[in-house]
Amino acid sequence: MGVHEIKPGDVLLAVEDISLSFGAVRAISDVSFDIRKGEVRAIIGPNGAGKTSMLNCINGFYHPQQGTITYKGQKRSAMKPYEAAAQGIARTFQNVALFKGMSTLDNIMTGRNLKMKSNLLTSMIWWGKAEKEELEHRRFVEDIIDFLEIEAIRKTPVGRLPYGLQKRVELGRALAAEPELLLLDEPMAGMNLEEKEDMCRFILDVNDEFGTTICLIEHDMGVVMDISDRVMVLDYGGKIGDGVPEEVRTNQNVIDAYLGGGH
Amino acid sequence: MEDFVIEFMFFLEVLFSGLLTGTLYSLVALGFVLIFKASGVFNFAQGAMMLFAALSLVGFQEMLGVHWTVAFLLTVVVMILLAWCVEKFVLGKLVNQEPIILFMATIGITFFLDGFGQTLWGSDIKPLDIGLPTGSLDFGGIFVDQLELVAGATAGGLVLGLAIFFNKTKIGRALRAVADDHQAAMSVGISLRNIWIIVWSVAGLVGLVAGIMWGSKLGVQFSLSLLALKALPVLMLGGFTSIPGAIIGGLIIGAGEKLAEIYLGPFVGGAIENWFAYMLAMVFLLFRPQGLFGEKIIERV
Lengths: 263, 301
Fold this sequence. Notes:
The complex is a heterodimer. By secondary structure, chain A is of the alpha/beta class. Chain A has helices spanning 51-58, 81-86, 104-110, 120-125, 127-147, 163-176, 193-210, 221-227, 245-250, 252-259; strands at residues 11-22, 25-36, 40-44, 66-71, 74-76, 89-91, 181-185, 213-217, 230-235, 238-243. Chain A starts with 10 loop residues before the first strand and ends with a helix. Chain A has a six-stranded mixed β-sheet with strand order 6-7-8-3-9-10, sandwiched between helices. A four-stranded antiparallel β-sheet of chain A has the order 2-1-4-5, with helices on one face. Chain B has one domain (2-227). In chain B, strand 1 and strand 2 (142-145) form a beta hairpin. The A-B interface holds A 59, 61, 80-82, 85-86, 90-91, 93, 97-102, 106, 109-111, 113-114, 116, 118-120, 123, 130-131, 134, 157, 159-160, 173-174, 177 and B 165, 168-171, 173-174, 176-177, 179-181, 183-191, 198, 241, 295-296, 298-300. Chain B: Keywords: Amino-acid transport, Cell membrane, Membrane, Transmembrane, Transmembrane helix, Transport. Chain B: It is found in: Cell membrane.
């Protein structure tokens, strides 16, 4: 619809001079960066650097006071979260935001919400069609469950699952929307080594097999340097570094920020 | 032997009457469950909504002199409008706030509706007559109130419809998702706004139906608003999140209080009916705080 096809390597999302404050507190000041289609883009930085705020701006939870966000060639002002979702932006949360009373399967099914056509009225008039549609989506969701190797907990209410598995279910819910841009907020926080390796594998597989563009926040430097194509570094709401992992690793500002030498 | 048969028939009559009154409680409880299930808010205003709906229905009938079906449709429009206003002016401003804040807001809505309804339609007791059958039917010696039968059937139908709606449709799942986590629901593309308008409309409709039944029985008056209090023990028994629970809870409370009145009343001086439900709910809270069918409260520490 007027939006030209974006090829791998082209800019999918561009953030320009964004500033965000809460009252007198500046969460982000004048940050610009871009995410290219098909890449794994990492945002790193010490606690309180504005990483999560950045994701919240991208998917519409926060509306920055200054700056613009261009997604798929369209510049946009304030966007609501469900509109961002409708345009192919899915995400996970730092403190796992799942529907705790619902089963794994139902949680992931909610991710299909936007893909389902039948509404209240049509499903009342033509029940059979709505049921058939439900089944088709169910099949898709089962594929995701297989992919993430969580068959055994299909029917378990997610509130009962250990943290690592909850993170996996949350990834499943985001994948169910077949997103173009996937935002992951600390997908490996609180995991043991084995769980981290699994999660890395899933992220890379999603990126490889479906060509999904991924933007992730992570604290584990080993992981970040391993799986990312490019890394942006934030500190006190400002950008202090940006580039391929090797550049960032040797950037003096970044080293100072992490070792506390600069302050 | 003869005595025993008469005793037994009497018992059955009390039981049926209790069960059917119970479905009337269930109708009120149903409105609470809907909103609680879908937004995690305990809607204190459910009783006021019921009163407001009944007042509007009677008001339209009186003022316009139209058939009750027309008045019914007009009232449905009013309740949808009310749902829209609640979202627009109250809940919409309180996204991501603590449940207690939302609860306080519904208390505000209660007072507003009570006052507004009476300002619009007056505060006299009004008869509500939409041609529902009255009087009793004789089932081989057991007398059953016809109005209560209709109420029972209506409640059954509503529950069936709502259960299918909640468990089998996309909107139903979206409703449950919103109840669980606002942020996450928005991130998968659910519009909070639409969901809240839908659920408050449905709760308004259920309130209207409950208001018609109670209004036919007692007349439309301010005390209908207080019936909401009778729904509380029903909810504690059935669970705040279960639609079938609201029905079963209503049946247990209805039958329990009638039987207790007849058979235990004489030993403690009567008037058990007034407090039995609350007593039962309290005992229940001790042993099964989530109610019979409520979602188990899961907390990982």
